[in-house]
Amino acid sequence: MKVNCRSRKSWRQVCVRPKEQQLLQTQLLTIQDYGYPWLMFPMFFCTNNYLKSEIVRASHFHEREYRFSTRAPWKYSFQPAFVGTHDLVEHRKLHFQARGFKYQKMSSPVMGKTENNVAVKDYSQELPLSNCYETAMEALSSLITRQKRGTPSSIIPKYGKLDRMQMYLKILDLEEHIAELKIIHVAGTKGKGSTCSFCEAILRECGFRTGLFTSPHLIDVRERFRIDGLDISEDKFLLYFWDCWNRLKEQVTEDLPMPPLFQFLTVLAFKIFVCEQVDVAIIEVGLGGTNDSTNVIKEPVVCGITPLGMDHTEVLGDTLGQIASHKAGIFKPQIPAFTVHQLSEAMDVLHEKANELAVPLKVVEPLDERKLEGLKLSLSGDHQYTNAGLAVSLCKCWLQRTRNWEKIFQNDNEEANMPKAFLRGLATARLSGRAQVVYDSSSNCHSSLELAENSSGDLIFYLDGAHSPESIEVCAKWFSSAVQESKQLPKLLSSFHDVEITKEVWANGYIQSERGSTAESNKISKKILLFNCMEVRDPQILLPRLVSTCASSGTYFSKAIFVPSMSTYNKVTSGNSAIPSGISNRDLSWQFSLQRLWEKIIHGIEGDVLDKGSKLDSAETLPPHEFLYEDASHCSPADGILACSSVISSLPLTIKWLRDCVRENPTLRVQVLVTGSLHLVGDVLKLLKR
User: Fold this and answer.
1) How far apart are CA 612 and CA 589, in angstroms?
2) pLDDT tens string 33-46
3) How confident is the model at residue 565 (pLDDT cuts 50, 70, 90)?
4) CB-facing half-sphere around the CA of 344: CA atoms within 13 A
5) How confident is the model at residue 446 (pLDDT cuts 50, 70, 90)?
6) 622 with 563: CB under 8 angstroms?
7) SS3 for 280?
8) Which of 50, 139, 615, 681 is most buried per CB count within 10 Å?
9) DSSP-derived 3-state class of residue 340
């Protein structure tokens, strides 16, 4: 076995299965021959019934050779999950029993220290078990606060938010190591996740070990933490999660409680990236900038500000200038920053903040499509050229400031040509739930594609979590363009089930499929809006802008369906969590208010003609299939009966109803735009994946 002796990056902490231990130990002997010290790591293996702690000698190898180390190695120690004294065990036992967790007695190896000072403890404790990963989700759920955004707390904490974050980092011994992560810090209203995903893919293609922290997650919380382009594994997540949880829990006081959910996840991200020894960490701001949990980053390599707009006004202020001021809060003295073209009110504030801190702020042009040399951006929509242009500038600056640009691209003409690694990154970056198209083949019960074309209609989901006025307009333009393109060209669509027409399996588990356009050209297209938004949003701005932008491109909705999300704001779930089935006593007043607004928009009704007394369709029963087949032109508000929309009380019922409709009518092609909420988009993806 050939080992790259030049790179310390051969050493990683990994979660391995027991059957792999013998092979790893054999590899380790080979490595010792090259003069490397051996390492030991406390590991956890999760089965359906228990957690088992092991001490494993392990090495980690990657496909790429990480030639350019950006920092020196450092020593650290951490405890395995649920380590502590007998008194602490009893305290935790009561704590978890109060939350309904189960316990099981188990033992593990003796305590010791390895040659590299990694702490290994002997513990024989009772561990909370029901399902190890779901137990972690329940623990995370306990950190969700019930306080609404923008509502002042009735209790004034002794320490400010960022002060508490610093204290949490100190407890976990992470303070001094954050600067070694070589961070790219990105804030903004729209495009933060896309820009960060482009950055991650570009630098990974350049040969660096990458860490990416984004929010929110759509299906599983592990989506927020990517290592080398992949969601962190369950084993590693549990290892780092319980280590952070236990050590913070030990230090809880009245003045320093457990961190709320996003603060904990931010701390966990730093823990993961430090322990995984990434070369670069790309960190997306959660909300705002100045007071965001991620703003404990003191010395990023470079900062970025994506397009700004009106969002989270209850927290950030109700003017673009106030919002820009919060976003610019991530600027650090003399650290380079990049932004895109903004409205003058926002741009003036960004320049003012940059001047105060002597920040060299540059405005980036959208990426010129010609520089892609015939390749396509992996993320759809014209707006992605703006995000891609920003990502290219951020990555180039990062490479230059870490003194890696010349090492990698010494023979490239950096002004004339885009480096090949950059092109590969721009063409392969991924981000679920943003301008994503999913072909639902489960509505097709036949194994033969030819038979299926003649026996069932098509059900295609267009998913975008737009929830601000600016992003909903971008979403509408993308949807209009996507449905019009599908009329002429075979469309590459992602499918969860139809393996027979598979062309390529993506790293994130989606399947890219190609369908011909011959049969599709004969189908009757129905464009459906599936919508929900949080009550803090303003649907009186979102829905009219969505309708008018689509109409300006010749795209019109046949029907609209308003449905509550499955996700609740008081529970963290995983991809395997049970889908709630109970819908009794569900308050649908918000969905009915959205429906009334929709009918006013469609029929051009002013004022309160459609009041709460209008005969809206009941959500008690599903609408008949004929409801979907009718055009919007056939529905009118005569007699107060509103037939252009429907409220359905359950998202799973809605998906099933849509599938039944296309099965019943082979000539139908239903194109469903799912938007208004990332929670709704995530719930739909979860159902389609099932």
Assistant:
1) 10
2) 333 333 333 344 34
3) confident
4) 0
5) very low
6) no
7) strand
8) 681
9) strand
- Which pLDDT value is given to residue 463? 97
Side-chain-side CA neighbours of 494 within 13 Å: the count stands at 23
678, β-bridge pairs:
none
Tokens of 117: 């000072």
DSSP bridge pairs for 304:
186, 338
- What does the pLDDT look like over 147-190, one tens digit per residue? 655 556 656 778 899 999 999 999 999 998 998 899 999 999 99
Evaluate whether 182 touches 404 at the Cβ level (below 8 Å): no
Q: Which residue has the tokens 């896309």?
A: 194
- Do the Cβ atoms of 523 and 596 come closer than 8 Å? no
201, 227 Cβ separation under 8 angstroms: no
Q: What does the alpha-carbon distance between residue 290 and residue 206 come to, in Å, rounded to a whole number?
A: 31
614: pLDDT confidence band, cut at 50, 70 and 90? Answer: very low
The CA distance from 198 to 221, in Å, is: 20
CB 302 within 8 A of CB 338: yes
pTM above 0.90, yes or no: no
Helix 539-552 and helix 589-603: axis angle, to 10°? 40
CA 37 from chain centre, in angstroms, equals: 38
Residue type, 587: D
Q: CA torsion, points 416, 417, 419, 425, in degrees to nearest 10? A: 120
Give, in degrees to the nearest 5, the angle at Cα 321 between 295 and 476. 90
Q: How many C-alpha atoms does 39 have within 13 Å on its Cβ side?
A: 20
Distance CA(44)–CA(242), nearest Å, equals 11
Short-list 436, 431, 439, CA closest to 463 = 436
Interval 574-605: pLDDT, tens: 877 777 665 556 789 999 999 999 999 998 88
Question: Burial of 518 by CB count in 10 Å (0-12 exposed, 13-18 middle, 19+ buried)?
Answer: exposed
Give 520: exposed, middle or buried? Use CB within 10 Å, 0-12, 13-18, 19+.
middle
User: Among 7, 99, 10, 15, which Cα is nearest to 51's?
Assistant: 15
